[in-house]
Every structure is written in C-alpha cells, then in structure tokens.
What does this fold into?
Amino acid sequence: MKKFLIKLLLIVLIVSLSGPITEKVNIYIEEKKIEESKPTQKERLQFVELLNDNTYYYFNGLNDKEKEAYITMYSSFMNFDEAFVMEINGESLKTVFTAVLYDNPHIFWVDNEYQYLENEKSVSFTPNYRNTPAEAQVISTQLNEKISNIIFEADKLNIDYEKELYIHDYVCNNTVYDENISPGSGDSAHDSLLYGSAICEGYSRAIQILLDAVDIDNYLVVGEGKSEGTTEPHMWNVVEIDNQNYYLDATWDDSGVDDTIVYFYFNVNEEMISDDHFNIEPSNNNCDSDSAYYYAVNGSYIKEFKSYSAHANRSASVLRKGENKVEFIFKYSTVYKKAIEYIEEDKGFFDYVYAAVKSSGRRINPYKISYYTIDDRNYLCIVFG
It folds into this structure.
C-alpha cells in the first residue's frame, strides 16, 4: 500500500512540474528562433544603404515592430530561407508582407501565397518561392543588365520629367498587355523588361524599378479601374516630379489608337484619375497638381478656348519637328464641344491650319487635313497631310 502511494505522489509531482518547465522551454525555443531569424549586422547595414537609395514608401509607414519584421523578411527572402520567425501578429504580417513586395520590385521570386503559424508573441512564416536561387540569379543578372542599358539612355536627359517620359515610352513600346497570361506570370518587372509581356503589375513594377534606377521617387498604388463598363483590380504608380506627386498609369497609356501609346494617364492628378480609377490604396497620395501633366507640359491642355488661331504657333512648332499630329486635351467637356463646333462650322479653323503650315516652313497641303476625337477623354487630334 505504501509503495502505491509513493508512486502516485511521484507521478503527480512530475505532471505538476511538467507544465511550467515545458512552457519555459517553449518560450526559450521561441525566443531563440526569433533571435536566429533576425538579420545579421551586415545584412542590416546593407538594408540601410537601400533605404538611402530608394523611396521605400511602405517601409516608412510601418511601426517600429513592423519595421524590424520587414528587415527580417527582406533578408530572409534574399537568402531564400525556408521559414523564419517574426515578433508580430498575423494582422501585421499581411501589412509587412505587402510592404516588402511593393517596395522591392527586384524580389520577383516570392509568391503571393504563404503559410504561417501564430501564437501570442510571434508568427512563424513559410514563404512559397516561384524560382530556385539559381534560377533567380540568372534572371536577376539579365534584368540588371537590361536596366543598365535602359537607364544609360535615360541618364543622358537633363531633367526628371524627361527621364520619366523616356522610361514610360520604353515600357509601353516594348511591352504587350496579355490578360491571358498564366497565373504567377506577367506581374513582375522582368516579365515586361525581359519577356515583353505583362499585366498591370508587371508594367507598374517595371516603371518602378527603372525610376528607382534613375533616382526618381515613386511607389505602387492599387485600386480598381473601370474600362468599357468593366471594373477590375488594378495597379499603377505615384511619381514625384519637382516636389509634386502625380499618378502614372503606363498600362492604360499602352492602348492608343492604331497601336500607338497615349499620355492620358501621364502625371495626372486626383481629379483627373477619379473618372475611372476607384478605391485607391493608399488613399491620400497628395496628387493635386497638373503642372507635370503631359499635355500641360506640351501646351496641349486647354482650359479655355477662344479660337484656333491662338494655337497656331504651338502647332507650327510641332510640325517643325517633323511630326504630323497636333493633340489637344480639353479640361472641360463644354470647352471640348465648343472646339469641335469651331471645326465643323469652320469658325476660323482653316485660317489656323493655313497659319500653322506656313509658319512651320514645311510643304504640307493645307487642304488635306483630318482629325479624330475621343469624347470621353475630351481629346482632339488634328492630322496634317
């Protein structure tokens, strides 16, 4: 009988002690994993250098714990770590994950889907990688070489606006939008720049990685775009030119008449983009100016219209460059309709054409003039010859 009681007491003692001991061990293991997942001093210094070079808009919007997790995640992605631990909760994890991928277009090998386990103190994160380290290295080398070749030309230009325009035109002229592309493809910078086929994410990240390379501050935004009655998820860019923010949607500019690019979404403000872009995140991007809007810079953005003769000199300068198309964007639909009426009823329109041709010095038959319009953009294009 005594033996039984002694054994029972021992069992109770062991069970009662196992709870606290296991808990302490688990806490120790968890803290050890967190510590092991943290980036090395060298990796941290490398990241600080990156912060000095590029915008890192989403990183700067995080709290201190999330910033620490961001650096851990960034370093782990660069090292292709299979799993790592961060001292944040599941809600913050999504924020940090989005921030890392949106700030770093050169990290293309991480899939949007991932797995994680959460407890009170941390999350254990397991990413899915689209590429092996060897595959990613080959693509990265090719991509960096391509970027160097592109910005070699862009850096010859004098001002940021011109560099941005060169990059916009390069991406649009060398990328085909492919909505039938397979899942997990078309959404990276290299899809546009190396393979020439992308969806909106690929366009936007190509713009981002090239603007970063020429030191123009920019970041990605997402929302919904409405085209031909259909509303779909969409991505585009915010770009800073001369201390002012503008929206730039290269995807939608790569859809012009006769397969040419247009500039309807080149440095537009909040008012301009709100016609067909909705639920923008982040919502406050301070895009209030129209100074660097493409048509404003080129003297084609008309807020008031009195006569075509007022625009003869600008049209002549366009013709002198060897171009045959003169474009106009009217801010208000009432002004646009008035301008079209002046063409249809020839209220000084032929006099404008004659004056522009004569001033240009080119041999263009003033009687061979045509024009086309895009009503929902208040757009008019006059074609000479």
Observations:
- Residues 240 and 378 are 26 Å apart (CA to CA).
- The chain has 15 helices and 14 strands.
- Confidence is low (pLDDT under 50) at residues 1-29.
- The two ends are 115 Å apart (CA to CA).
